[in-house]
Write a structure and sequence with these properties.
2 copies of one chain form a homodimer.
Chain A lengths: L15 H15 L6 E2 L11 H14 L15 H12 L10 E4 L2 H7 L9 E6 L3 H10 L2 E6 L18 E5 L11 H14 L2 E5 L25 E6 L1 H4 L7 E4 L5 E2 L2 E2 H12 L5 H10 L2 H27 L4 E3 L5 E5 L6 H12 L1 E2 L1 E2 L10 E5 L4 H12 L4
Parallel strand pairs in A: 1-13, 3-4, 3-5, 5-6, 6-7
Antiparallel strand pairs in A: 2-8, 7-8, 9-10, 11-12, 12-15, 14-15
């Protein structure tokens, strides 16, 4: 008799985004004349830039002719893209072998699937508030989860607590949802803790391209010693608007071992068995991101999103609403004024300003009383949202 | 202290394709003047057809403009593609709801990832010879595997043995590697067995488009009662040359339950948590496959591969070499002449005829003494290969 994975019954139903969309749809139905501005979901709005489109067009052309058609590619990605990624890491003074880089269809897949190579018996350390998938993917496997508090007392940057034992540690910097970023010293503390515990850090660097501050590490491997205790997962979703095109990469250094076992080898085996690689045309597009023109164009787009953050930050400051983020991140994490709850602020912003954001409590208990604004929006909408915010009375 | 998934240490190293490529590379280095013809790996060689390229081009254009740009799509696939797939199933008189269809990046991913929703305690029934990923993905999870013999006595179409208890059953028809196909009566027996066991059938229909015989089911759901005991996994890789473009689909009917638990709901949760959908442009391309012109063009391509099978089949017959497959499948499965071993025939074909095939033993113990020829090759190469075969003396 078939038995299902009983761990699924321990998942909490995720009502966050369905609740949001239900409330928004209801509001729109009742107020068809109102223009609702979404600063909610973290999805990009600007189109792919010219060098990426050129990569796609070249790829499509190759796929249409017998001489240049591509069938199965290498599961870990084409050499032409891995070479380019190797070069990108050199900019952060990180030296990688190309066989330490695995091209994937995005950070979400890799962050979920990487758990295949780990025992269910590991204890997992997860910050709160957090991207919900870190939690759910481990609940599905039945792993014990320990939460660490990110809150105002640590500027939403939890640091190691040696009284807590953990085997797998999630870090996301620049952080989703808070926009907080770890500096070199703080990351060094995490690397030291991981080594002391014999743990692995899963470092989610999906927002690294938003870092402006030159002293902030883009990669965990900028920290000495990180190569034998950290896996880095990155994505072009936010770097280059690939949320609908799907391409990311995961780095597992050869030094990273569990006893005698190479994690790189386990992941290669996992991917070769359960994955057939990213579409050739998408890898061609990804290569375009890292061309000279691609770098310039993607920076322009990121700068425009960060300009949005400045506009929103300025109005919040004017209104004396505390917030963090927005400087090295596309997210602004604000303290709800007057001790309002996250959902109360959500309702008020929707009704009074016709603005959609994300209630902080949706990311964990420490998110209660906070609120996330996403800067992935058109400039004119952000300016209009700022004007509307200014008129609010708390 | 981090612990890895110890089940990985129970994987047998897969030497099959690395051994093949090593032998081929060695031969080529020693015989630079010889033209080696590959009938080995099951990868397509003909380019994407015009309606698919058109879908890609439209998609790329959409992604380049702000008004039509697409970010995150639905994890289970765009409605426009699921509608088309629903229509395709109607041709086999199979009625599906669109929320029973999940668009994926290919059968390999889905066949591996679907195991997330099942307990590790299930007993898995797998035919031998077999696509090696069925075995490896279950070894990774530590599930008990029971093999069923496919051999000449059952025309390489194993049928249920009620003395064997199983919870998860793999069926692949048309079969890789043997090219054998189950008829309606045989599939009905499997559905009856699955119901008796309370088991689920994972039906791999990746080669369904190669079926010529009108009496052979394309979908397991053509069998009455299959909807509450079978998951179907399909792919455009072989249907439309998508091996490098990556698109497939998995069907989980609403009727399919394990106790009170809907498997469709579990899979939706798994995919929403660990997957971000297939690139929009690839889904546009996939839609092109099912247009009227797309159907005609992909049929032409499949017919040309099956023409190859006819050419090879004719010469094998002339040489009095027994084989099956090739009629409803791109694979020919031949009995090695004179009791040769699979690898001895491989060596002989490479050295004497400069033809690369796949030794049957690479697919399991019942494959020993057999050999797979893939018909995914250019017609002129197949004709030349046939000429060379004819001259061989066994």
């Amino acid at each position: 008799m078939l038995k299902v994975n009983e761990n699924f019954s321990n998942l909490t139903k995720s009502y966050l985004f369905s609740n949001i969309s239900q409330k928004v749809n209801e509001f729109k139905a009742n107020n068809p004349d109102k223009k609702v501005i979404s600063l909610g979901i973290g999805d990009v709005v600007l189109p792919l830039c010219a060098p990426v489109i050129k990569g796609l067009e070249e790829g499509v052309k190759d796929m249409s002719a017998i001489e240049t058609f591509k069938g199965y590619g290498p599961e870990q990605g084409y050499a032409f893209l891995r070479d380019v990624l190797q070069g990108y890491y050199k900019e952060f003074s990180v030296e990688l072998n190309t066989n330490e880089i695995f091209v994937s269809d995005g950070a979400k897949s890799d962050l979920g699937n990487i758990l295949d190579i780990f025992s269910k018996d590991n204890v997992v350390l997860i910050p709160d508030p957090v991207y919900p998938a870190y939690v759910d993917t481990n609940v599905m496997d039945g792993r014990k989860i320990v939460f660490m508090d990110s809150n105002i007392s640590n500027n939403f940057l939890a640091l190691p607590d040696y009284s807590v034992k953990a085997d797998i540690i999630y870090l996301c910097s620049p952080n989703n949802p808070t926009g907080a970023v770890y500096n070199r010293e703080q990351l060094t503390k995490w690397v030291e803790y991981a080594k002391e515990m014999g743990a692995v850090i899963l470092f989610d660097a999906a927002y690294e391209a938003f870092i402006s501050d030159e002293s902030i590490p883009h990669s965990i491997y900028e920290i000495p010693g990180a190569k034998d205790c950290a896996i880095e997962v990155c994505s072009l979703s936010k770097t280059a608007g690939f949320t609908g095109l799907r391409c990311g990469y995961t780095v597992i250094p050869m030094e990273l071992k569990c006893g005698e076992t190479s994690l790189n080898e386990l992941w290669l085996r996992r991917q070769s068995t359960k994955f057939n690689g990213v579409p050739y045309i998408v890898q061609k597009a990804a290569t375009g991101v890292f061309s000279k023109e691609g770098r310039a164009k993607t920076k322009e787009v990121i700068d425009s999103y960060k300009e949005n953050a400045k506009v929103l930050g300025a109005v919040l400051k004017e209104m004396s609403i505390d917030y963090i983020g927005g400087e090295n991140s596309p997210y602004i994490w604000l303290k709800c004024p007057n001790e309002m709850s996250s959902w109360d602020l959500f309702d008020m912003l929707l009704e009074k300003a016709n603005i959609v954001g994300t209630p902080g409590v949706g990311f964990g208990k420490n998110g209660e009383g906070y609120f996330r604004l996403s800067c992935f929006a058109l400039k004119e909408n952000v300016i209009e949202a700022a004007e509307r915010l200014k008129k609010l009375q708390f």
